[in-house]
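Lecture notes, part 5. Sequence design as translation. It can be helpful to think of inverse folding as translation between two languages: the language of shapes and the language of residues. The source text, in structure tokens, appears below.
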């Protein structure tokens, strides 16, 4: 198993020592460097990119938030803020932090943060793999930017699907379910927003926060109460509420 490579950034030596102590004995991680200020942290990340950065917010000179803002979004490590103040939480998550640890935290809370970071890294690597595979599958002569098949990593395997094989997409807890034309389902670890971008808006439409449908498989828009609608698919059994915020996709079919 590949170890998570960690960078610790905190201007307080005792805080760095405490984090090292909590990590001692954890064979799943490797501390690659420590920094006491934001400028050194930026240099360390650029020189030898870590997987995860434990980053204090308040530091002299360049603070933790400024460090993250100077990193390209598509090349940022997993960021875990560790601070004694809760007032920076909103700002931290606005720069897509993976977790926010309030000092003093214990070993169990640290393990939770590491698990979240590991999952984030796994999903990002899987996404990169899918993108590379789709690029290889694309028919460059007719549609250079749109692959004829999509690659999904599911339960340790990579499954290739044509978009027309997907009937609808459902968010279920931490997973996404792809409902396919052969009545089977494929479980994938990916966000609904990411899948929506991959499918495009020409043949698929979001109907609510938890579902995307292929427009060809919509059989009926059934009015309910107060001007709302239910989307009914061809099988007659799948009935999905149409969110008012998503009605624009079906506006030409609805006479208000």
């Amino acid at each position: 198993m590949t170890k998570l490579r960690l960078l610790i950034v905190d201007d307080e030596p005792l805080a760095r020592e405490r984090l090292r102590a909590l990590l001692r004995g954890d064979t799943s991680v490797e501390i690659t460097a420590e920094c006491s200020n934001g400028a050194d942290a930026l240099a360390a990340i650029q020189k030898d990119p870590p997987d995860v950065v434990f980053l204090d917010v308040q530091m002299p000179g360049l603070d933790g938030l400024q460090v993250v803002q100077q990193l390209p979004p598509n090349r940022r490590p997993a960021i875990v803020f560790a601070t004694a103040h809760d007032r920076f939480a909103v700002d931290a998550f606005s720069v897509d932090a993976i977790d926010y640890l309030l000092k003093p935290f214990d070993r169990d809370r640290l393990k939770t943060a590491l698990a979240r970071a590991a999952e984030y890294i796994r999903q990002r690597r899987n996404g990169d793999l899918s993108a590379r595979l789709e690029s290889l599958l694309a028919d460059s002569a007719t549609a250079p930017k749109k692959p004829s098949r999509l690659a999904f990593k599911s339960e340790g395997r990579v499954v290739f699907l044509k978009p027309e094989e997907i009937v609808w997409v459902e968010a279920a807890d931490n997973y996404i379910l792809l409902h396919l034309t052969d009545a089977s389902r494929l479980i994938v670890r990916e966000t609904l927003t990411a899948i929506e971008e991959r499918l495009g808006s020409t043949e698929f439409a979001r109907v609510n926060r938890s579902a995307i449908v292929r427009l060809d498989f919509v059989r009926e828009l059934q009015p309910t109460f107060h001007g709302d609608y239910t989307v009914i698919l061809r099988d007659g059994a799948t009935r999905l509420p149409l969110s008012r915020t998503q009605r624009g996709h079906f506006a030409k079919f609805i006479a208000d």
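The translated text above is only one of many valid answers, since several sequences can fold into similar shapes. Helices lie at 13-23, 38-47, 64-69, 89-94, 107-137, 192-199.
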